[in-house]
Amino acid sequence: MMKHKAIVRHGIQCALEHLHEGTAGIGELIVAPEKVSICGTDIQILRGLRNDPAPVVGHEGLAKVVEVGAGAVGFAVGDRVTINPTHPLDPDFLLGHNINGLLQQRVRIPRTAVSGGLVSHISPCIPAARGTLIEPLAVVT
To answer: Global pTM?
Structure first.
């Protein structure tokens, strides 16, 4: 089984570690983050002010699809995407909160997020740093 690097938190300490990289299951995507921003929520988690269980934070970023599971319709290897981190119908999907986030080389995006329309294509014309602002701009009221 392949391994990839991730910034893993242990309480309020973080370390660069190797995680096992599986393959994309049915309806899943594996993405490689291109650029990731740190959110105020991430800082709260890292300071121990929130009790979110995911050891890898990060939910604001741009990524490239590196593997497409059977049934993940509309995606191809090489597509640039951003992921809405909060599933309105599935409380088990909170990217970077209760499932591992984007501060790693490979991220499994589960079927519920893919089929739920939480993965959006992003034009190659958008600079990666600007692309990290898509999620925060989407939630501004």
So the answer is: 0.93
